[in-house]
Every structure is written in structure tokens, then in C-alpha cells.
Specification:
7 helices, single chain, 10 strands, Rossmann fold, alpha/beta, 2 domains, two-stranded antiparallel sheet
């Protein structure tokens, strides 16, 4: 008999469960171009895992003065949802969620994105019935890298604050990993094979294969 030392997994979605980073970038480029700002030459890493309010703050002075953050962000969400057929799961993502569900591990999605995007991703992944819930940026006052989204997820999962190490956050960006670490969760930093994006030194473990999660040596304790 084994005793599980982790009783919940808090998943980032974009770039972790869903291969959606390029669609987000295309949505940002397409909508920004409508207002005279060409971002096509910008490196993907500039906006990866960044709260959309911070993206707006970085760009808004280049847009017409009549454009509001609410309208700009709404059009980006519209573009993303309208093109959702382009989305594909990250390798092993759906399989891993199913394995963890069969093991009795509670699972929660924690995202820096709007509800419509979160719901669209979960629907495309087909994992809604396996989740205990999800958190969007609209559910919190401060998104990642602030710990609030993860603290709210821990509360929703019913995990005592004295036992937050029983929750493993799976993240693919330093922004999200810092949020999870600030919430005092354990952190698995996910970098798919060949991914050259920045790592996160504060992670408990780095993985390049999501299917390894349920059989990690420190996931189960003899």
C-alpha cells in the first residue's frame, strides 16, 4: 500500500495542457494590427504567461487614444474563441489528466486568462468532468505572478493552508511558477522536449513529459 503525499494538481492551461500559445499570439497580433500596431516581429517570449493587463500597459501608448483596454481585450478574446478549432492538446495532457482522475487526485485549472478562453480550452480538451473547478483572471483581483489565483484554487479544493505542499502546480512559464511558489505550492516546471524558453530555478522538479507526473518518485511515498 502506498500513501500519496500529493492530493491535488493545479494545472496551468496555456502551454501546459493546451498548445495555445501561438493562437494567443496570433490573436494579439491580429487585433493590435487593426489599431496600427504591428507585433509580428516580436519574440513570443515577450508576452508568454504575461497578464493581459500588463500587455496592455506595455502597448497602450501606441494605440489610438479612443481604444480602451476593455474593447481591445474583448476583441482578442473574440478572435481566439472564433479560431478555437486550431487548438490542440499538449502531448500527453489529456491522458495524464485521465490517469490522475482514476488515481483519485483532485485537479483544478488556474489561468491568467478570461473565463471565455478558459472555458473554450477546457471544452476543447474534453476534461471538464474530471476537474474540481477552474480559476480565471476574472475571479481574482490580481493575476499571476501574484499568488492570489493559486491561493483561491487551494481554498476551493478545501486544502488546509497548513498543508499546501499537498498541491502540485504544473506551469510552463516563470510568471506562473512564481505565482505558485509564492502561494507555497510545490512546482513542476514543464518544458517540452526542445523548448528553449526560460526555465525556473525555484521549481521542485522540471519535466518534459506530462505523462511522467503520475509516476514521479516523489509523487507516491512507500
Amino acid at each position: 500500500m502506498t500513501e500519496r503525499i500529493l492530493n491535488a494538481v493545479a494545472w496551468d492551461i496555456d502551454g501546459t495542457l493546451m498548445d495555445s500559445e501561438s493562437l494567443h499570439l496570433h490573436a494579439l497580433i491580429a487585433v493590435s494590427k487593426r489599431y496600427g500596431v504591428d507585433l509580428s516581429a516580436e519574440p513570443e517570449e515577450r508576452f508568454r504567461g504575461v497578464h493581459m493587463s500588463d500587455v496592455w500597459f506595455a502597448l497602450h501608448e501606441e494605440f489610438p487614444g479612443s481604444l480602451t483596454e476593455e474593447r481591445w481585450n474583448g476583441e482578442i478574446v473574440d478572435w481566439y474563441v472564433e479560431n478555437a478549432e486550431r487548438l490542440t492538446p499538449m502531448p500527453g495532457a489529456v491522458e495524464t489528466v485521465n490517469v490522475l482522475a482514476r488515481m483519485g487526485v483532485a485537479q483544478f485549472c488556474v489561468s491568467n486568462l478570461a473565463w471565455r478562453v478558459v472555458d473554450t480550452n477546457i471544452e476543447r480538451l474534453g476534461i471538464g468532468s474530471l476537474l474540481a473547478g477552474s480559476i480565471s483572471v476574472e475571479d481574482v483581483m490580481r493575476g499571476k505572478p501574484d499568488p492570489e489565483p493559486y491561493l483561491k484554487a487551494v481554498s476551493a479544493l478545501g486544502v488546509p493552508r497548513t498543508n499546501v505542499l499537498a498541491v502540485l502546480a504544473v506551469e510552463d512559464s516563470p510568471t506562473g511558477a512564481r505565482a505558485a511558489r509564492s502561494a507555497r505550492l510545490r512546482v513542476a516546471f514543464y518544458r517540452p522536449e526542445g523548448d528553449k524558453s526560460p526555465s525556473f530555478d525555484g521549481a521542485d522538479i522540471e519535466i518534459n513529459d506530462l505523462t511522467a507526473l503520475p509516476v514521479l518518485p516523489d509523487f507516491l511515498r512507500p
